[in-house]
Amino acid sequence: MSEPLRQFVVADLTPMVGAVLASVACALLGNFLVLRRLSLMGDAISHAVLPGLVAAFLVAGSRATGVMFLGAAGAGLLTVIAVEALRRLTRIETGAAMGVVFSVMFALGVLMMKRAEGLENVDLDIDCVLNGQLELLFWAVPSSEPLLSAAGWRGFPPQVLTLLVVCAVCVAAVAVFFKELRLVSFDAGLATSLGYPAGMISAGLMVLVAGAVVASFQAVGSILVIAMLVCPPATARMLTDRLGRQVSISVAIAVVDAVVGYLLATRGPGLLGDEGGAVSAAGMMAVVSGGVLGMAVLGAPVHGVIARHARRWKLAREIAEEDILAMLYRIWEQRGAVGTLGVGDAVEALGGGHAARVAVKRLVRAGKVEWRDGAGADGGGGAGRSRGAVALTDAGGREARSLVRTHRLWETYLVEKVGLRSDHVHCTAMELEHHTTAQMRSELAPEGAAPAIDPQGKAIPPA
């Protein structure tokens, strides 16, 4: 093995693998916390393990992985029990109970740590609690020994081995009990009625969360644990509505966040010319995970802000098109001949806005309305068209007749079936006409029993 590659494996690959294992374990379980709106539970456990860590150190006088793991695990399980007990014995909601418990436990841990700082041979550090010691997870192997020798394995960080075991347990548990976890996450009442022990499944999930948090806590700190419990699952939730895909996507995102965050923390300052600069690797990973979540919130194809605004804009434009067609049809009814509608009048009647102006142009391009009075004859005249008028074509007339028919059928239904007054149904029918399918229209007017007159005495157009 070349020396640069050996140096990368010893100094960079080992902490990177530890970060990936911690991120995957937290993200995997975080999916079910996000679905159940219990994301704060991971935050609560990650804060509440602090008194357990301090107590374990004070009792055993050692920072050995096993001792610290037992102390933190005990505090984590105590947190879960305390939250559930507080929720059941009081009238406060789960989120408030978690906030109370983790605040008290974290404050207790800080007090214990401050107290312990006055003792001899104590090297607990609050910064390590928050940021972890990811950069110190290097493979301590003598340069003369091969990495895979017995001496080399003795220098392998025990925290990474612990994370490997915990991550494997989490993956196996989710794979085996995925159906049960999915059912309890979406509807615990249904799970109980089907004979599944919803309470036991929930408790098992919390035990797994506590184990993953505790195992990750010592290596990567509370900041990354909290970020990975929430950000990758929330990002995946923005990208899909299928739980199986969500779990897979969240794991992939967690891996990317960990690797990219670590590389930015270790290589970023050098690329910016600050060779001696130091950036917390765990903190940078949390920042990357938050940035990826932010991009998903904005750009997700279905649930993203941009996609939602695009759908609303499209719906507003389509409704404006249909309203213009219906207005032109009603003008034709009143005059008994093809009538025109001023573009400015149409835009004003629809409440103004760009969508109404775009709707007119789209109707012209679709051949459903046509310019009259020479409007737009100059080819480019935006001013001429904004002052001009439009009239229905044959294709537009057929669609307009169907819209007005649907509107008046809804008015008839709301009066005769729902019992509303005839002067209270117009606005409701205006909304319903835009969302009526052909099947709904046939149910409103069964063949041979379709009404001919609406409640206002206007003729209902034929189909």
Key terms:
single chain, about 475 residues, mainly alpha, ABC transporter involved in vitamin B12 uptake, BtuC, 3-stranded antiparallel sheet
- Strand arrangement, major sheet: 1-3-2
| First-last Cα distance | 81 Å
* Overall average residue pLDDT: 82
Q: What proportion of the residues is helical, as a percent range?
A: over 70%
**Major sheet description:** 3 strands, antiparallel
Kindly provide the radius of gyration, computed on alpha-carbon positions and rounded to a whole number of angstroms: 33 Å
Percentage of β-strand residues: under 5%
The CATH architecture of one domain is Orthogonal Bundle
Low-confidence stretches: 374-385
- State the order of secondary-structure elements, H for helix, E for strand: HHHHHHHHHHHHHEHHEHEHHH
**How many helical stretches?**
19
Structural class: mainly alpha
| CATH fold-level topology of one domain | ABC transporter involved in vitamin B12 uptake, BtuC
CATH class identity of one domain? Mainly Alpha
Describe this structure in a few short sentences.
This protein is mainly α and 463 residues long. The chain is built from 19 helices and three strands. The model is unreliable at 374-385 (pLDDT under 50).
Provide the fold topology.
Elements: H1 3-35, H2 39-60, H3 65-89, H4 94-116, H5 126-131, H6 150-154, H7 158-176, H8 178-186, H9 188-193, H10 198-239, H11 243-271, H12 281-299, H13 305-335, E1 340-342, H14 343-349, H15 354-365, E2 369-372, H16 382-387, E3 389-392, H17 394-418, H18 426-432, H19 438-444
Antiparallel strand pairs: 1-3, 2-3
Helix pairs in contact: 1-7, 1-10, 1-11, 2-3, 2-4, 2-10, 3-4, 3-10, 7-10, 10-11, 10-12, 11-12, 13-15, 13-17, 17-18
